[in-house]
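Incident log, structure service

09:12 report received: a user says their structure output differs between two submissions of the same chain.
09:20 pulled the input from the user's history:
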Amino acid sequence: MTIVTLLVTGWAAMAVTMAALWVVQAVRRNAGIVDIAWTFGTALLGVFFACATEGLAARKGLVAVMAALWGARLGFYLLRRVLREEEDGRYRALRERWGRRAQWNFFLFFQAQAVWALMFAVPMLLAARSARVVLGWPDLAGAAVWLAAIVGETTADRQLAAFRAQSGSTGQVCQVGLWRYSRHPNYFFEWLHWWAYVIIGLTAPGGWLTLFGPALMLLFLFKVTGIPATEARAIRSRGDAYREYQRTTSAFVPWPRRRTRA
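09:34 re-ran on a clean worker, output below:
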């Protein structure tokens, strides 16, 4: 398939999927399903693109495995959370703010997620199309970054889950493990994951477009649905304890803590 055919096919599949899931959220009143759909959808597009495009078979297989395992880990983690918990506070706030137009706006939001899934799968496509005729150090370096990111994000998620499971943790700030050095280590390692496709695919035709993966993820984390909304909820529920956490702890990159007030 040509790149244009791959992109159009991928977008159409995601648009139909998101339209169907929009109906599901309207019935269940839980828009958190869109996060699961975006994750699995991006991963499936990555696998599809890697398998259907031109390139070295070994590299295509590597990218397909990376996309599939990333999507499976994050997707099932989000699925368990959506099934166990109430609708994410971000989406409850949107329902209240949008009022009578909520369902129409959510439809547009779900369709935007279909476009975003396609955009995030493009770096995977380009990585699989790299022109190098054998696997080399960029492929190994990309795989190493991918592994470090997956291990880091999995560790952060487990540490947070273990903290929340403790009695008396309600209203407290998680500052154990990686959370002692970053207020959002899970977000940091998710962002790091997208650099793996840059390292592998930068030399492909149009490979500079792989940079849109980490760039877009950074934009979403800092300006759209990530850190601002998460920290606003944390301040409402934890108050001064979280403000002190903000003052002493890096927002994103794991880093030694600043001194606390006397």
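09:41 both user submissions now match this output. Likely a transient worker issue. Closing.
09:42 reviewer note: The chain has two domains: 1-129, 134-262. Residues 137-165 form the longest helix (29 residues).
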